[in-house]
Amino acid sequence: MSGDKSQDQILTQRSGQVAHIIFNNPARHNAMTLFMWQRLAELMKDLAVDDDVRVVVLSGAGDKAFVSGADISQFGAERANPDSVANYDRLVAAADKAVAGFPKPTIAKINGYCFGGGLGLALGCDIRLSAETAKFALPAAQLGLGYSYDGTKKLINAVGPATAAEIFYTADTYDAGDALRIGLVNRVTPDDELDDVVDELAHRIATNAPLTQQTFKAAMKECLKSHGETDPDYIQEMAKACFASADYIEGRQAFMEKRKPVFKGK
């Protein structure tokens, strides 16, 4: 794809052990193109096995949007027949799964519009921090779009079934204060403080024991599964690996020596 400007639609940056994925389609309020969905899945897969990365932050370029949803202008070409629809849906599902299933801590840094597929991506992150002027909506019912099981489950897990029903049936837009009240986001900050708040949180998380964090994240996902589908033995083995790690020794020694631990993820 040499010379293809779509290559610039997702940017990556590193700050120590924190990786940033930036949705960069500002002309369309960072709406997700087919290329962006595909590239996002690839990036998350690469970062999952990168030992130098402990936290991933997802954000939107500019100050107008996190992600305003899928780029509907592409639907005529990219969803023109059953085969292309199936391919499009497969790539979107793979990207959503790559974010929601990512084994390390993730943070959504939300400014401006967080609509549709953008809200789905944010809900796939562990922590969601919002600017005061952010707006949230699931407009599928205004567009005649079907909504997936996984997307529905993420919404219900975040806000509960009754609130999820209201959000979905009405397709209303919610401001940041309402998003905080109903559980869509963890915290709301002034717009000009969002970058600093997210950076401080991400770097603080990155200093803690990665094996312990990954074990908790895996356990959290097991807890959200339906009855009979959980695998507590798998989590117990991960917990045992934490106690057998060099990081466990380092954590104990640092506590006794009253110093900050330096964890290696081993």
CATH superfamily of the largest domain: 2-enoyl-CoA Hydratase, Chain A, domain 1
| Main sheet makeup | 6 strands, mixed
**Uncertain segments of ≥5 residues (pLDDT<50)?**
none
Lateral arrangement of strands in the main beta sheet: 1-2-3-5-7-10
Query: What is the CA–CA distance across the termini?
Result: 38 Å
Assembly type of the chains comes to single chain
Rg value: 19 Å
List the helices and strands and how they pair.
Layout: E1 10-15, E2 18-23, H1 34-48, E3 55-60, E4 65-67, H2 75-78, H3 82-100, E5 106-110, E6 113-115, H4 117-123, E7 127-131, E8 135-137, H5 140-143, H6 149-159, H7 161-170, E9 174-175, H8 176-182, E10 187-189, H9 194-206, H10 210-223, H11 232-243, H12 246-256
Notes on the protein architecture:
The strands form 2 sheets. The protein has a 6-stranded mixed β-sheet, sandwiched between helices. A 4-stranded mixed β-sheet has the order 4-6-8-9. Helix 1 runs parallel beside helix 3 (82-100). It starts with 9 loop residues before the first strand and ends in a 10-residue tail after the last helix. Strand 2, helix 1 (34-48) and strand 3 form a beta-alpha-beta unit. The chain is built from 12 helices and 10 strands. It is of the alpha/beta class. It has 2 domains: 5-205, Alpha-Beta Complex (2-enoyl-CoA Hydratase, Chain A, domain 1), CATH 3.90.226; 209-256.
Primary descriptors:
six-stranded mixed sheet; single chain; 266 residues; 2-enoyl-CoA Hydratase, Chain A, domain 1; alpha/beta
